Amino acid sequence: MIRILIVEDERPISNLIRLSLKKAGYDCSCVFDGAEAADILETQRFDLILLDVMLPEIDGFSLMEYIRPLEIPVIFLTAKNAVADRVKGLELGAEDYLVKPFEIIELLARVNVVLRRYNKTAAELRVGGLVIDTQAMQVRRDGEIIPLTPKEYELLLLFARNPGVALYRETIYERVWNEEFPYGSKTVDLHVQRLRKKLGWEALLRAVPKVGYRLEARP
Ligand code: CA
Predict the structure, then answer these.
(1) For position 5, what pLDDT does the model report?
(2) Ligand 1 mean position, distance from CA 51 (Å)
(3) 54 CA to middle of ligand 1, Å?
(4) Residues 157, 132: contact at Cβ < 8 Å?
(5) pLDDT: is 75 or 161 the higher one?
(6) Is 1 exposed, middle or buried, given 0-12, 13-18 or 19+ CB atoms closer than 10 A?
């Protein structure tokens, strides 16, 4: 299981991140200052670190110097939108940064991208009775392959990586079609209907009024 260390002194933010990542199938540990982070890193292995910049004891930038030799990817969390801060974080070797407040879907997307870059995502995702083999790009139920079009597969992957999250039509379109959502487009709805039918997911892939869709399944 992928293990993520959350270094964030603001408890509500830390809790929100932990719950969201847990729901997405990650194992998380939380520490609340830089010294605690250094301690836990000495004894435990992590695949990714979410690191707040403004921390008591040792700040995130100083801690980064300590983390770099461990070769664990880091995403900085920063309240400051200052360009200098972002540049500094990236110069110090961070993979990415998120400016607070951020949407959970953005957090999950960045986490997934960084883990993929490090080849740390699970090759297989299990959701709603399906096995998604992300290397073969195949979907199976009870060992039998369910044929999907490339867009249906991308759509399924987006839902599978964001279980329990209400996804806006616009977001879905932008992530799967890599283009801006054409106003009033029914493309997403049509593809979701097809996917539901093919997977037998009528009860799992739910419409969220005025928003879009949500996958009810637990990972
Ligand atoms: Ca802070």
Answers:
(1) 98
(2) 9
(3) 4
(4) yes
(5) 75
(6) exposed
Cα 8 to ligand 1 centre (Å):
6
Residue 35: CB atoms within 10 A of its CB come to 13
| Residue recorded with tokens 């933010």 | 13
- Number of helical (H) and strand (E) elements in the chain, helices listed first: 8, 12
Helix (H) or strand (E) holding 67: helix 60-67
DSSP string, 117-128: HTT-S-SEEEET
Domains of the chain: 3-117 (3.40.50.2300), 124-215 (1.10.10.10)
Q: What angle do CA 53, 58, 61 make, to 5 degrees?
A: 40
Question: In whole angstroms, how far apart are CA 43 and each of 49, 139, 154, 155?
Answer: 15, 38, 38, 39
Distance from the first to the final alpha carbon of the chain? 12
- pLDDT reading at 119 higher than 80: no
List the shell of residues around ion ligand 1, using CB closer than 5 Å.
9, 52, 54
> Where is pLDDT greater, at 180 or 79?
180
What confidence tens digit (pLDDT) does each residue in 171-198 have? Answer: 999 889 988 899 999 999 999 999 999 9
Both tokens assigned to 210: 């005025």
Cα of 152 vs its chain's centroid, Å = 20
Q: How far is the CA of 211 from the centre of ligand 1 (A)?
A: 31
Ligand 1: centre distance to CA 33 (Å): 9
Centroid of ligand 1 to alpha carbon of 89 (angstroms): 15
